[in-house]
Amino acid sequence: SGVPVPSPGRRRVGVMGGTFDPVHHGHLVAASEVASVFDLDEVVFVPTGRPWQKDHREVTGAEHRYLMTVVATASNPSFTVSRVDVDRPGPTYTVDTLRDLRRLLGDAQLFFITGADALQQILSWKDADDVWELAHFVGVTRPGHELAATGLPHERVSLLEIPALAISSTDCRDRVARGEPVWYLVPDGVVQYIAKHRLYRGGPLGPRLGD
Ligand code: ATP
Ligand code: MG
Predict the structure, then answer these.
(1) Closest ligand by atom to 27 CA
(2) How far from 143 is each of 81, 92, 168, CA to CA, in Å?
(3) What is the C-alpha radius of gyration for the chain, rounded to an integer number of angstroms?
(4) ipTM exceeding 0.95?
(5) CATH for 12-167, among 3.30.390.30, 3.90.180.10, 3.40.50.620, 3.30.565.10?
(6) Which numbered atom of ligand 1 lies nearest the CA of 115?
(7) pLDDT, tens digit, 9 for 90 and up, residues 28-53
(8) Where does the signal peptide begin and end (predicted)?
(9) What's the gap in Å between 168 CA and the centre of ligand 1?
(10) β-pairing, 50-51 with 91-92?
(11) Which of 73, 77, 147, 192 makes the best surface tag, with the fewest CB within 10 Å?
(12) Cβ(65) – ligand 1 distance below 6 Å
């Protein structure tokens, strides 16, 4: 499917939305690959406030997830982190994320980056019809999920094969809870952040910074 025709002079900005609980190398490789292939000037990571799909489980406080994302992206000059979702009250919907970024970034061309699992769910999103006007969507391969744009508008979606990293935040949390290492699954600074704040250790009352 089509890559949007480049408009000279317009900034090309990737948007990597996620819960990032915690951020891991699968997220970073996805952002890096899309930035390279689509010639992006910048990728903005946007940690969710309260993710509406994840109401069934306790998500780590937004401030911890935001700070881990800052730590993970700090060394890359073209990676930034936005607080738009963290600071917006109520559940996070991607249509609101894209509208806020549009307002903040002026006439930049937005490329919303999503793994194969999340791409399948777009049609169930709030105001799904509107999101196609706000960004071009790039679906990337993810181990264990079939990458397909079935039912999605083909001119608005590109599919991209990226290096396969079978890493998930769920697995990282479970590993920490079991006392197993997450070295090399998440950036070193995130390993240290998790240890320092005793995240994911289990028990009913985990740390709640800012939520
Ligand atoms: P959880 O297990 O808590 O759902 P996750 O690993 O799926 O965490 P999310 O924060 O839910 O991470 O995902 C943010 C985005 O990154 C989604 O679009 C997701 O599909 C994508 N993504 C996550 N992990 C990978 C991976 N290993 N490869 C490619 N894309 C990924
Ligand atoms: Mg997920």
Answers:
(1) 1
(2) 25, 26, 10
(3) 17
(4) yes
(5) 3.40.50.620
(6) 20
(7) 999 999 999 999 999 999 999 977 77
(8) none
(9) 6
(10) parallel
(11) 77
(12) no
